[in-house]
Sequence to fold (655 residues):
Amino acid sequence: MTKGYFGKVLWIDLSTESFKEEEISDEVYKQYLGGYGLGCKLISENMASNTDPLSENSILGFFPGLFTGTMAPLSGRYMVVGKSPLTGGWGDSNSGGTFGPEIKKCGYDGILIKGIANNPKFVIINEGEKEILDASDLWGLDIIETEEKLKQRYGKFIKTALIGQAGENLSLISGVANDKGRIAARSGLGAIMGSKNLKCLVLKGKKKIPIHNREDLIKYTQIYNEAASGEPGRILNYVLKKLPNMAKMVRRLNMDMAAPAGLTNKIYKKLGTCVGNTIAVETGDTPVKNWAGIGMYDYPFEKSKKLSANNIIKYKKKEYGCYSCPVRCGGILEVPELGLEETHQPEYETCAAFGAMLLNDDLDSIFIINELCNRAAIDTISTGCTISFAIECYENGILTKDDTNGLELNWGNSEAIIELVKKIINREGIGDILADGAKKASERIGKGSERYSMTSLGQEIAMHSPKAFESLAFSYAYDPTPGRHTTASVDFYDTGSVDDEKFIKGFKFPEGWKDDIHLKIKAQKLTSCITQVTNSLGLCMFTSLFGQYPVIEMIHAFTGWDINLEQLLKIGHRIQTLRQSFTLREGVKITENKLPNRTVGIPPDEKGPNEGISIEYEAFYKGYCEEMGWNPKNGYPLEETLKDLDLEFIIKDLY
Ligand code: SF4
Fold:
C-alpha cells in the first residue's frame, strides 16, 4: 500500500462539469515529494505553452505538501499554482490556515481545475460526494460573507478556498483566500479563479493519510514541539516587550538580524511578523516612499513606532496559528473603535506596503485596509505598491485630481488611501486603471509614469530591500516567480538558523561563503534547492528560523524511504529547474529582466544605513546559472541537466 500519500489527484473540469481522478506513481512522488513540485509537473504536461492564463484551457492547482494534514509541526501550508496572469510565467502562491489539510482529508494530494463554468459556480467535495453548484447568490460577496453563508448551509466544519470581489473583477493582483483572511496572494492567481467563474472550493473530509511509521512521526513531532513551544519567561517577556522600541539601537549598533532559533520562535509567537515594523525601517530593510526614501529621515522612528508590534498586539483577542503549528505567529484582533470584532493581525508586509511605502503612520487605517484587502482577497503588497506608484504620479503632476475622482493622493493621506483601496477592489474610476498592478497602470497612464512602477516583470517587489540583503536583488530579478522575498535569497535565508546544520542535519553552506563570491553562489544553489523541498513538504518558510527540523527522519516516518540529503537537494534542483523551464517556455525573457534602479541603489543613498550601497546581481545570476546547469546567456536549463533531473518531457517545449 502507498505510504505517506494517497497517490492520486483530482481533476475538475468546469466546462463539462465532470470530475476525474488521476493516479500518480510512486516514482513521481520520489522525484517531487508531492506538493507544488508535483503541481508544476502536472500543469507543465497538461497545459500547452502560451495558453492565456485567463482562458478555458488554463489550469489552476491546489497542492498541499507531503507532510500537510498531519501532526508534523509547521506543515499546514498549501500552494495555489498556475500560469501567472500578472507576469506571464510560472505562478505559485502559498497560504496557511486549515484549507491545505482538508484537501488531504478528502483523499487527494492535489486538486486541479480546468475549463470555464457558464455562470458562477462553486465546487463542493463533502465526505466523498462531489458536486458543482450554482454560486449566483455568492457572487459579489466578500470572502467572509461567503464563508459564513456556506457554513450555514453545510455546517461549521467545512473549509473553503475562495475569491472575493477582486478575483471576480479579474484583478491581476488578486489572490485566493481561506480561513477568513489567509491569502495565497501573489502571482495574481485569484484572477484565474474569477475567469473560470469559480467562486469557491468547499471541502469536508475524514480520510486519514496512510503513514509508514506513526510512532516515529509522533516521536519526532513531540521532540520538535517540546523545543518549540513554551511561553517566554518573565525576563524574556520583558525583553520582547521592549524589542520593537529598540529599533534605533539595532540600527546604530548595526546588529545582525539573525537570532537564536529558540528566541526567534518566541519573538514570532509573541509579536508576529509585525515585529519588523519599526526595526526594519530603521535598518534600511523596509522600502520607504516608493523606494525613494530613507527610513530614518523620511519615516523616522517617531512615525514607524505608531505601527509597532506592541501597538498592534494590544488589540489581540486570541492567538492564531496555521494547522499543526506550535509557534502560532498570527493573531485575531478586536478593534472596537473601528467596529472590527474579529480581524486578522496585519503582517509585516502589509504594514510596510501601506505604512512606510506611503509615509502613512495612521495605524487605524492599516487595520481598515487589512480587513478590506482580506475580504476582497487582494494582495496587500501589490495594492500598497500600486498606490505608492499612484501617489508619486500625483505628486509629480502625471495624475491630477480629475484623474483620481477627486482624491488628493498625497503621501500619508490615509483617508485618500483607504478610498483608493476600495476603488481598486471594485474597479471604480481610477481604481480600474490601478487594479492590475503598477506596471499595467503605467502602460495605461503613459506620460513617463513607468519610472514610478517598482515592479519586476509585472510583479510588485516585496517589502525587503536588496540594499539590506543583497542577493534579494537576484531573486527579485530572476526567480521564475520574480519580485518575491520568499523565493530563496541566500542572504535573506541566512537571517535564520539554516546554515551550519541548525535547520537540517548535514545541511551547511561552504566555509567562508560570505567572503567569496564563488562560494556564495554555491550557497545560493543550496538555498534554492532546500527552499523547493521545504515548500513541497508543505512546511512554513519560517521553519528554517526555528531550529533543527528532522526533515529526513520525518520523510522516512511518512514514506519508509531511506532518502539522504543529497537526494533531497536533487529533488529541489529538479523542482526549481522545472519552475524555470515553465517561465521560459512561456516566452518570458528572464535574463533580460532589470530591476528598477531605486530598488538596487542606483544611484546609492548618500546617507543612512544603506549609504553608498549599489547591488550587482547580473554576474551573480550568471554564476548561479552555471552552478544549476543552466545556460548563463538565456537561463535555459541545458539538455543534459534536464535529462539528469528526469525532466525530458519539458525539452520539446524549450528546444
Ligand atoms: S509560523 Fe506562523 S505562518 Fe508559519 S505555520 Fe506557524 S502560524 Fe503559520
